[in-house]
Write a structure and sequence with these properties.
With 324 residues, the protein is of the alpha/beta class. It is 29% helix and 21% strand. The chain has 8 helices and 14 strands. Helix 1 packs across helix 2 and helix 7 packs parallel to helix 8.
């Protein structure tokens, strides 16, 4: 079944696969099984995805969340302040992660080989445990372009390369943490025509926190582009959602977003209502595909979604802290 998870075409296929993955993880994941048992939930009770229990994301900080006895390929870790407890995602089949983000990129943006990837992120050696850096590092390699690379500590060279390649008509993906993108536009002027600017979030500890509209307006003006794209991913997931503007995200066919009642975590809300973000990521076949995050958001009728904020008691975490 694992080989079929990333080839879903319809809602019916997604539902069928998700229910099968739930049964697999209920049987093979000790942490998730214990959680379901505490809720008195058994696969025989579940007929629709809304009834599947969503494991609180905090369990990745205190437990080894695994649905497989295979050897560990990679351990991805979340960022955190000094002394804080970080999440660990144990990945037994990193090829499934690679297939997920490559298919996801192709689904939303097309062939990676058409792009130069310029990353305002710490490089792979500086932040080896980051799933985001792992993904971007591989995208850089898969682009097979000599200009692709990491430029977090070299803004002047990046600016010159960005201007020159854009003028030549080269398709470019400039991906980076928010504060670094702001650093770049404060130091250099741009008028980009062939570049996708994608922020991965993050300001805490480096700059004053901005709401998305403020951030995107500053970046739009600084790069002279019409839209700022965004990536929605996290250590505990092996798939990503993407926004091509206005903070409205889409997911690949093997990933789905639901919202839960903030007062009753077991109740899934109707579309259009703000609640806690629940994620179904079928690429998480060997860990847990059903995760209750600490993000607040809203799912629209067409299954796009937006992130509105985070629960007040959430820990400071995420890619914004990778370079502290």
């Amino acid at each position: 079944m694992k080989n079929e998870l990333l080839n879903i075409k319809t809602e019916q296929q997604f539902t069928k696969k998700a229910l099968n993955v739930f049964k697999h993880q209920f049987k093979n994941n000790k942490v998730y099984r214990s959680f379901c048992d505490l809720l008195y939930v058994h696969p025989s009770d579940i007929t629709k995805i809304e009834d599947i229990p969503f494991l609180p994301i905090q369990f990745f900080k205190s437990r080894k969340v695994l649905s497989s006895l295979e050897e560990i390929d990679e351990v991805f870790t979340s960022s955190g302040t000094t002394g804080s407890v970080t999440s660990k995602h144990y990945v037994t089949d990193v090829s499934l992660y690679e297939e997920s983000y490559l298919k996801g990129f192709d689904h939303f943006y097309g062939d990676i080989k058409e792009y130069v990837i310029l990353a305002l992120l710490p490089n792979y050696l500086e932040r080896k445990g980051s799933s985001l850096v792992y993904m971007v590092n591989d995208l850089i390699q898969k682009s097979e372009n000599v200009h692709s690379g990491f430029y977090l500590n070299n803004l002047d060279d990046l600016a010159q390369k960005l201007v020159n390649l854009d003028k030549e008509g080269q398709k470019i993906l400039l991906i980076g943490v928010s504060f670094a993108l702001l650093d770049l536009v404060e130091k250099h002027n741009f008028n980009l025509k062939n570049t996708i600017v994608m922020e991965t979030g993050g300001m805490k500890g480096r700059r004053k926190e901005l709401i998305r509209n403020e951030l995107h307006m500053l970046l739009q003006n600084g790069f002279n582009v019409n839209e700022i794209h965004s990536e929605y991913g996290m250590t505990e997931l092996l798939s990503q959602g993407y926004s091509k503007g206005n903070g409205i995200f889409e997911t690949p066919p093997w990933m789905k977003i639901l919202t839960r009642d903030t007062e009753d975590a077991l109740t899934v809300l109707e579309k259009g209502k703000t609640g806690g973000i629940n994620v179904i990521d079928l690429a998480n076949y060997n860990s847990c595909s059903f995760i209750a995050t600490q993000d607040l958001g809203k799912v629209h009728e067409n299954n796009t979604f937006e992130i509105i904020g985070r629960f007040d008691n959430s820990d400071i975490r995420g890619c914004n802290l990778m370079v502290l």
